[in-house]
Design brief:
Elements: H1 2-36, H2 38-49, E1 50-55, E2 62-63, E3 69-81, H3 88-106, H4 110-122, E4 128-134, H5 136-143, E5 157-166, H6 174-177, E6 179-184, E7 187-191, H7 192-196, H8 198-201, E8 206-212, E9 218-220, E10 234-237, H9 241-258, E11 262-269, E12 275-283, E13 289-290, H10 295-298, H11 308-318, E14 326-328, E15 333-336, E16 339-342, E17 351-353, H12 354-359, H13 363-374, H14 378-387, H15 418-423, H16 432-443, E18 448-449, E19 454-459, E20 462-466, E21 471-473, H17 479-495, E22 509-517, E23 528-537, E24 544-551, H18 562-565, H19 567-579, H20 595-610, H21 623-632, E25 636-640, E26 645-648, E27 661-666
Parallel strand pairs: 2-10, 25-27
Antiparallel strand pairs: 1-8, 2-3, 3-4, 3-5, 6-7, 8-9, 10-19, 11-12, 11-24, 12-13, 14-17, 15-16, 18-21, 19-20, 22-23, 23-24, 26-27
Helix pairs in contact: 3-4, 9-19, 11-13
């Protein structure tokens, strides 16, 4: 009996010791939690009950030069349905009416939606997709439908909102406007203006502190934000919607007519370098064309005969020959190291001057002029080419600019044919934009400016930053050389390879180019032509420069030359910019008076005198121009929005009463 009591005592002591040790452990743990890990657990508790939420900043808009909205952010809504949330009675009472209502907005039959909603409830689907990418108007309608109007906890409606970037006037210059894609925190990429100017467009997100309450809901702790969001600035691009539309459709028509693979066109203001239009179209498998790659900026390729301007300018600058120097075309073929250089005109042109050889794009003339004068010192020629900046990128703001290639005599791949091949645009590589910048320098009195896609950063009507023209090379050549090359470029259109484009009423200057691509393959597979035309207009007082490049035109009719494929696009753009009428073979002089217009103007002026002054029709005008016009007429102007005038509160033709207020709605 004593032994049993002793064993019981041991057990009691053992249990007591265990309890004592547990108490010590608990005390140590509590002390550790309170004093050692206390800060961590306090922060964890606070994080689970109090949290900073991000307030997204509104992204800025992108506008065209004339005030049209090119890119903007708008909210889109996704509606889902938690089929288990509504009570059975509420579901059965409202499901038919809900299906009927959804049919009126979403387009499918009421029977379809009734079947889908019942199936979702039977399958315990708590996340059934009702509709996505809804506008705010449709979202508000659906939110008020039977059952859904009961809210998330009784009606089962789940609302998700996202902000998407829209292009209100379509996909013009889509690759130039670009995009920004965000994959996860800290990771994103993009293209074009959206990506290059994202620091201005995106603004800065704000923060608001919220506390968790019942049913997983969060409410703000205080009225003021922790950090207020800063909306993004607006970016004013240099794109002119009118010129862009002309360029896009002129290029598209030619690509379709020639069933070409892809092409690009760029129109640039000569003095400033502002890009007024840029279109890059590639052919899809179904034969349609759409903006795929920014070929004008990214695609570096052999330019062919458009590179001959570099030859001529270099020869004239070094004074090793003149435009009057005569060369023998030698039957249209000469050879260097066993490789033939041929003229497109079979049999050649006989003996002609260097200037005439340029106008006719004679390979034999230009190659002889370069080779004969620089064969003993090719570095002299190449260094001059480098001085034009053609061996370097333009360093535009855009991501993905193509790398130019100008072979150097110090390169290990330099050979006996490198110099003569350069002379007619082979063995070198430049992008269309780089070629255009060089030709634009000729139009701009020798000043090479950097192509510019953005003119201004604005916060509403306040200018944050104005982009001034950026000079790359203040003087690419002497005045004497400049006058000579401009004369021959004008003659290319007047009596050379571009003579099909000539009009006595409208002057243009430029150079045709036709390059073979993928010619290096022995079996000839993949060989095709790239047709181009680059120049400026008007020829005597240039305002715009332009380049057109068309890759892989259909050669079944043997009509793949630059003057035939790319040249008409150039001409159509030049015509429409300055005449604002459909392209015709004959263009009326810009300063010629048109009797009908003169008569209409005189009648309108007489009416103004008789009836005092009348309110003009300003619809479609840029807002700033409309304001200036109306204020000059003695009216007070109120506006809403930005861009062009969509509506005016007072009708055109009414008598103007001084100090009357007119309201303009801009869009």
């Amino acid at each position: 009996m004593a032994v049993d009591d002793k064993h019981i005592s041991y057990r009691i002591y053992l249990v007591a010791c265990a309890i004592f040790l547990m108490a010590i452990g608990i005390a140590v743990k509590l002390t550790n939690i309170q004093w050692v890990e206390g800060e961590y657990y306090r922060e964890l508790a606070k994080e689970r009950t109090v949290r900073n939420f991000v307030i997204p900043a509104n992204k800025g808009n992108i506008y065209s030069a004339d005030g049209s909205l090119l890119a903007t952010s708008i909210p889109k809504y996704i509606i889902r349905f938690d089929a288990l949330t509504p009570k059975k009675e509420a579901f059965e009472q409202n499901v038919n009416a809900l299906a009927d209502s959804l049919a009126t907005v979403l387009g499918k039959s009421a029977g379809f939606y009734q079947n889908e909603l019942r199936k979702a409830r039977a399958n315990n689907n708590r996340y059934y997709l009702v509709a996505r990418d809804l506008s705010y108007t449709d979202y508000m309608k659906i939110k008020s439908f039977p059952l859904f109007e009961l809210g998330a906890y009784k009606g089962g409606i789940i609302i998700e909102q996202k902000t998407v970037r829209e292009h209100p006037i379509g996909k013009i210059a889509e690759r130039t406007i670009g995009y920004e894609r965000k994959y996860q925190v800290g990771h994103s990429d993009g293209k074009g203006i959206e990506w290059a100017y994202r620091d201005y467009l995106n603004g800065k997100d704000g923060k608001i502190l919220k506390q968790k309450i019942a049913k997983g809901q969060w409410k703000p702790i205080r009225d003021l934000n922790e950090v207020d969001p800063q909306d993004g600035y607006d970016v004013i691009s240099t794109i002119d919607v009118y010129i862009q539309d002309i360029a896009h459709h002129a290029l598209l028509k030619q690509l379709e007519d020639y069933q070409a693979d892809h092409g690009c066109v760029v129109v640039m203001e000569s003095h400033t370098g502002q890009v007024k239009a840029i279109s890059n179209l590639g052919r899809a498998s179904d034969g349609t064309y759409y903006e795929t790659t920014n070929y004008a900026v990214a695609e570096s390729h052999e330019p062919g005969s458009t590179f001959k301007l570099v030859d001529l300018m270099t020869i004239l600058e070094d004074k090793v020959a003149d435009t009057s120097t005569v060369y023998d075309t030698k039957g249209g073929e000469i050879r260097y190291s066993g490789k033939a250089v041929r003229d497109s005109h079979k049999g050649g042109y006989g003996k002609i001057s260097l200037g005439r050889g340029f106008e006719l794009s004679s390979n034999t003339v230009l190659v002889q002029a370069v080779y004969d004068n620089y064969k003993n010192n090719p570095s002299k020629f190449v260094n001059r080419v480098n001085s034009y900046g053609l061996n370097k990128r333009l360093n535009m703001d855009f991501k993905g600019e193509g790398r130019p290639f100008i072979p150097q005599p110090t390169d290990k791949n330099w050979s006996n044919i490198s110099l003569p091949w350069m002379a007619f645009g082979y063995g070198v590589s430049v992008t269309p934009m780089q070629t255009l910048a060089y030709y634009n320098a000729v139009a701009n009195n020798g000043v090479m400016v950097k192509p510019q896609f953005v003119s201004e950063i604005k916060e509403w009507n306040r200018t944050i930053k104005k982009m001034e023209p950026e000079v790359i090379n203040p003087k690419i050549c002497s005045r004497e050389t400049l006058l000579k090359v401009r004369a021959v470029l004008k003659n290319v259109v007047k009596r050379g390879t571009g003579s099909k484009l000539y009009s006595k009423d409208f002057s243009m200057a430029g150079k045709t180019g036709t390059a073979q691509v993928n010619y290096g393959k022995r079996d000839g597979s993949g060989l095709y032509y790239a047709s181009s035309f680059v120049g400026y207009f008007p020829a005597d007082h240039p305002k715009y420069s332009c380049i057109v490049v068309v890759h892989k035109p259909n050669t079944s009719n043997n009509n793949y030359y630059g003057a035939d494929v790319a040249g008409p696009v150039f001409k159509r753009i030049a015509q429409k910019i300055f005449t604002e009428v459909p392209s015709t073979n004959e263009i009326k002089k810009l300063d010629r008076k048109i009797p009908k217009q003169e008569k209409n103007y005189n009648e309108y002026y007489a009416k103004l005198q008789k009836n005092q002054q009348l309110i003009p029709n300003v619809k479609g005008m840029p807002g700033m121009d409309a304001i200036a016009l109306l204020e000059n007429l003695g009216m007070k102007v109120r506006t809403s929005g930005m861009g062009k005038v969509k509506k005016q509160s007072l009708q055109a033709g009414q008598n103007i009463i001084k100090n009357t207020t007119i309201t303009l709605e801009l869009l």
